[in-house]
Known about the structure:
Blueprint lengths: L9 E4 L9 H18 L1 H6 L2 H14 L7 H14 L8 H12 L8 H9 L4 E5 L5 H4 L7 E4 H4 L6 H11 L6 E5 L2 H10 L3 E5 L14 E3 L2 H13 L3
Parallel strand pairs: 1-2, 1-4, 2-3, 4-5, 5-6
Amino acid sequence: MNSLESPIRAITLDLDDTLWPVWPALVEAEHCVDRWLKAHHPEVATKWPIEAMRELRDQVAREHTHLAHDFSEQRRITIRQAFAACGIDDAPVDALWGIYFAARNNVELYPDALPALERIAAKLPIASISNGNADLEVIGLHHLFHARINAAGTGVAKPDPKIFFAAAEALGLPPETLLHVGDDPLLDVVGAREAGLRTVWLNRTGEKWSHGPAPDLEFADMQALADWLDASAAVGG
């Protein structure tokens, strides 16, 4: 489908793997933590090398399903448990979280992302909807967003409709007037559709859609979305 029946009044936008590839930043964040541990707590670094720390993080997620929406708190618990396993009760949680958080937000945008965001933000309000702990102020994109919604602050994660409703409320618009853009077929496209939003699948990898009803629109990058919005505005939506 290359058109929508009624005008779009705002954009809601996923962040990780939509505006930047997140995995390189997450891996570097793990290495930053590991380097700090080797310098300041070698006993913890020895017991919990990167792969072991990653497995502990996964275990924490399984054991704390009530925190499925809060990746930051899951990682803080991981730090505490890693230190406790080494007989250290007073873990430097804030210091290590700060190191991880800074590196996790040192992302490299896809080349199309910033030019497209600037074009879109000049025409429509944008709200971010993220399950992760990306910080648009740290990254330097906050000025392009009208609202920033994340799972930790909302108490639920995508694809729960409540997080999409929270974005609609922050924008002051009905869900059906919003166009949600994201890379994840289930979290973004199916989740947004169930909440009543129109949907864009940002399919950078050229995968074939296989998740039920197709998204309203599909683009290979943000520039194509900006082009479509320009063309749609030119013909009156």
